[in-house]
Amino acid sequence: MSPAMATDGPALAELLLQRLERAGGGGLGSLEAAAALGLEHQQLVGAVKSLQALGEVIEAEQRSSKRWELTPEGKEIVQEGSHEARVFDSIPAEGLPQSELMKLPSGKVGFSKAMSNKWVRLDKNADGGPRVFRAVESVQDLVQEKLQLVQRGEAESLEEKDRNELKKRKLLMEVNIKTYWIRKGSAFSTTVTKQETDLTPEMLASGSWRDLKFKAYNFEALGIMPESGHLHPLLKVRTQFRQIFLEMGFTEMPTNNFIESSFWNFDALFQPQQHPARDQHDTFFLQDPAEATDFPTDYLKRVKKIHSQGGYGSQGYKYDWKLEEARKNILRTHTTAVSARMLYRLAQQEKFTPAKYFSIDRVFRNETLDATHLAEFHQIEGVVADYGLTLGDLMGTLREFFTKLGISQLRFKPAYNPYTEPSMEVFSYHRGLQKWVEVGNSGIFRPEMLLPMGLPEGVSVIAWGLSLERPTMIKYGINNIRELVGHKVNLQMVYDGPLCRLDA
Amino acid sequence: MPTVSVKRELLFQALGRSYTDEEFDELCFEFGLELDEITSEKDIISKEQGDGKAEGASDIIIYKIDVPANRYDLLCLEGLVRGLQVFKERIKAPRYKRIMPANGGVQRLIITEETAQVRPHAVAAVLRNITFSKDRYDSFIDLQEKLHQNICRKRALVAIGTHDLDTISGPFTYTARPPSEIRFKPLNQSKEYTASEIMDLYRTDSQLKHYLHIIENKPLYPVIYDSNGVVLSMPPIINGNHTKISLNTRNVFVECTATDITKAKIVLDILVTMFSEYCEKQFTVEAAEVTYHNGKTCIYPELAYRREKVKPDLINKKIGISETPSSLAKLLTRMCLKSHVTGNGNNIEIEIPPTRADIIHACDIIEDAAIAYGYNNIQMTIPKTYTIANQCSQEDIADKLGVDISSTKAVHIANPKTAEFQVARTSLLPGLLKTIAANRKMPLPLKLFEISDIVVKDSTKDVGARNQRNLCAIYYNKNPGFEVIHGLLDRVMQLLAVPPSKESGYLIKAAEDSAFFPGRCAEIFAKGQSIGKLGVLHPDVITKFELTMPCSALEINIEPFL
Predict the structure, then answer these.
(1) Cα–Cα distance between A56 and A51 in angstroms, integer?
(2) B422: number of CA atoms within 13 Å, CB side?
(3) How far apart are the C-alpha atoms of A289 and A331, rounded to whole Å?
(4) Strand B97-99 relative to strand B284-286, pairing
(5) InterPro entries under this entry (chain A) (predicted)?
(6) Which of A41, A263, B95, B508 might form a disulfide with A326, Cβ 3.0–4.6 angstroms?
């Protein structure tokens, strides 16, 4: 068997199998086998792996062992001889000037070694400067011979003293290598059957698949990702919320008006004109178009009266209500402005009919920006209008809504909102944080908001709201809102995000 | 929501018992408060200024309690304790009384005509024979600050001045004068300044600088003098040093100047009801007389008790409970709303004290009954409201058809937060380009889309603007990929059942647009109107967004297809 053939994959594997057959039940080590076959260890490992892939042909147990290897300089010496031998060889019978000897590649190291071996001598008083002469007839290059042993994988036969000496000269190094102890497997055979990678149409046509062996799949590897688009997490969570509202019989409100007048955003909701939320620090005002022009005149008069003088059983706020303030255009601060428009429209019907509305859309606040606050976010809002709704109805509706979100433990805290009374903040018990966290805000709209619209006296309107970002951040484990919303969104997060099941 | 800081020890002492932090948190929750933080002066200083500065600071435990924004009566320890003790039925709500001074010498405040242009209203009262301690004094100052920040709208609507009455003599005059003519020693200063100098002095003061704008540009500044010309205060900026209150002060003259008289009365009522607790005759306040320049005279504080009648049935129905009238009256009484059943048990008469200015309608009374009943004791029910759900209706959007988008203009924000946010967006493209710029490390190609609203001016709308739903898509790779974006358009149209056709379908025509590379841009027409453009982006645009690869994009108005 020529060495050229031994490097060929299948042939090499068969060589190894034959060797293993001869070695008997005890098996053999990969390092020794490589040395015996005159191969690089790595080539033999390749053969072991390809045999392992065939199934039970062999058993290979991984071991870690130390091995002596030649350094690049050591390899050179195996080829060229030691530096001292090379120096000796380069000196002719008439000797060589020391200065020239030193110019040789092995000159410096070789000279001092050859001197200490007493292979050469130095005549300092020779004509034309110091001259080096051979001191013996011939030399035996032991260093080369020892290194040849190492190369043959027989480093163990060297004395430890020699090995240390060669290591010190940086001709030898000790390396850790992964080796295998190889034994016959249950399906041992000295010949290798070629394995097919996969079924082909030809095999099916000819029926050859019956006689073929197939390469085992590596089930630990990952598959190839299908090419697909990815929805932003906010869209996924939004879809779930829409679904819940629709299941509960709520109709979607048209929220396509980011620009809103202060009238619908605040005044209609009985939020007084000096309220801090109407400050420049909380709300974005518009420069162009700066003012809204058109309001339902009679309704506007009723709103003015309820603020400045009261009525409908209310004391009002007793201040000078100004139309200029109501005209100011803003970026809406809540979608409740849309709810107000919808309830006003509902009140204009000839006969009142109960209504359930919902919306999920953007709102804008002039907030201090940080990891959990942006100047815009999505508000989720639900509204129910009917005769005789109670606070218990609000709580029951919230329980149903949050149960569909997978939140069952609820608690209600009295709160203050300018346009709802009673108002309640909704808390749920967070198992991770082990505390009650606020999940929404709710209440019954004030009569001062509803009656001027023209809704019948006995009609109550319950409402609640929450943000879309907060549940999304919790759901997808996002800590910085900028990674979720806006152009700094992390696309990898969008790619990797699972679908949204809020009840899970 | 305002936050009130109280020393835990003082709080428990006043409540007559101690609580664990959890118990107190629970009590707050039930009452509609929130125990926001448990801290100490030392903690606060070390958090704000670093550990080194906190050395030697007090480590007495402080509770920071969030109070609902309309409950001015809970903004100090005194009020919190009173509210909780009545809630827990450990005390009865005190009855506040205005009394005339025994000797008939009522303190008078005269408002002159000049104030009309700058700050036309004032109210006043006297806390007679009060006993301060360090904690009471601190609470008194703190409550004024809390009122200033909240109901007083940072002193714009109302400003409070409190003075040692024994250092001055009435009648007092509330007037307005040119700043150069006002001269006095401001609180805690060592020398006299003119009003103009005072404004300069406080321009860098971390607290007072926020109030200067209220009067700064007025020709006349408000000022209050005593009968000897001593300056009590220059509202809403600063008091005079002369009338400064100390721990030894026994008689306090309180004045509130205002642009909103209703709020001034509320603020005065709150301040005196809270601190009359420390007067010799507890919960009594000595009246003061305020005379307007037209001769109209008012006696303050009003301390008015108002009576309302609410049917028990209404309360039960609005909450969803069925309590007897007498137990409802009892619940309301626990909220400092003294109530009793009248008639044949079919009415409850409720007395609203001067501390509860937040009660303006029966719904406020009903809420208090619900809080006293306990929100979490209310039986949850599902409304019988029958409705049929609809997704956002098409007809609403249908009337937006036929709008020529080329006539649109951007909507401008008057008080933008950042330079990036000065107009409402009129295109989705910049957002997608920025998203790519922020995600340059991601493997190519990047294919992004957004379907979202943009805002355009529209004079036919009541607010002068409307939203428009756009679709924008972008392809970013080593090659421009026009065919990819074009293919996307074809696919979108296919899904919308719009065929490629000149007459009734869609087509694209070569166009010029500065955002696109010349000769690589086309306008998209569908249903006979232009709906947007697609093409290879102009290299200048690509580089401006700090991108390095060719890029093609598409942006269309999708409302015609909704």
Answers:
(1) 8
(2) 2
(3) 11
(4) parallel
(5) aa-tRNA-synth_II, aa-tRNA-synth_II/BPL/LPL, Phe-tRNA-synth_IIc_asu, Phenylalanyl-tRNA_Synthase, PheRS_DBD1, PheRS_DBD2, PheRS_DBD3, WH_DNA-bd_sf
(6) A263
φ/ψ of B459, rounded to 5, equals: -70, -10
Instruction: Say if the Cβ atoms of B389 and A245 lie within 8 Å.
Output: yes
DSSP B339: E
Contact A327, A262 (CB under 8 A): yes
Residues in a beta bridge with B347: B342
Q: Find the mean pLDDT for residues B111-138.
A: 95
Give tens-digit pLDDT for A69-86: 888 888 888 888 888 888
Pairing mode, if any, of strands A131-134 and A96-97? Answer: antiparallel
Q: SS3 for A159?
A: coil
Q: Which two tokens stand for residue A344?
A: 């006003």
Mutual angle of helices B77-87 and B134-149, in 10-degree steps = 90
pLDDT band for position B530 (cuts 50, 70, 90): very high
How high is the pLDDT of residue A195? 74
pLDDT tens track for A172-214? 888 888 888 888 887 787 777 777 888 888 888 898 888 888 8
- Give the span between the Cα atoms of A150 and B86, in whole angstroms: 96
Q: Is B2 an interface residue toward A (CB < 8 Å)? A: no
Q: Does A197 touch chain B (CB under 8 A)?
A: no
| B172-177 and B107-111 strand pairing | parallel
Closest CA to A438 of A499, A503, A497, A372: A372
Residue B190, token pair as written in the block: 């060592």
Closest-CA residue to A475 (of A234, A239, A230, A245): A234
Say if CB A46 and CB A13 are below 8 A apart. no
Residues B307-342 have pLDDT tens digits of 999 999 999 999 999 999 999 999 999 999 999 999
Residue A88: per-residue pLDDT: 85
Task: Mark which residues 32-71 of B lie under 8 Å from A by CB.
Answer: 32, 34, 68-71
- Complex ipTM > 0.90: no
CA distances B453 to A46, A285, B468, B556, Å, are: 60, 19, 5, 11
CB burial string B188-201: b at 16+ within 10 A, e below? eeeeebebebbbee
**pLDDT tens-digit readout, B417-454:** 766 667 788 888 988 998 899 888 888 888 988 888 99
Q: pLDDT value at position A484?
A: 85
CA atoms within 13 A on the CB side of B370: 34
Amino acid at B44: I
Interface of B with A in 366-385 (CB under 8 A): 366-367, 370-371, 375-376, 378-385
Longest CA pairwise span in chain A (Å): 132
The tens digit of pLDDT for each residue in A215-251 reads 777 788 888 887 878 888 888 888 889 999 999 999 9
Query: pLDDT value at position B424?
Result: 80
Which residues from chain A sit within 8 angstroms of residue B1, using beta carbons?
Answer: 416
**What are the helix (H) ranges across A7-81?**
9-23, 30-37, 41-52, 72-80
| 8 A C-beta contact, residue B198 and residue B191 | no
Q: What's the pLDDT at B419?
A: 64
Q: Give the span between the Cα atoms of B279 and B250, in whole angstroms.
A: 9
Decide if A293 and B464 are in contact by the 8 Å CB cutoff: yes
Predicted confidence at residue B406, as pLDDT, reads: 38
Residue type (1 letter), A33:
A
pTM of the model: 0.77
Residue B395: pLDDT above 80?
no
User: Which among A256, A276, A375 has CB closest to B421?
Assistant: A375
Task: Say if CB B556 and CB B524 are below 8 A apart.
Answer: yes
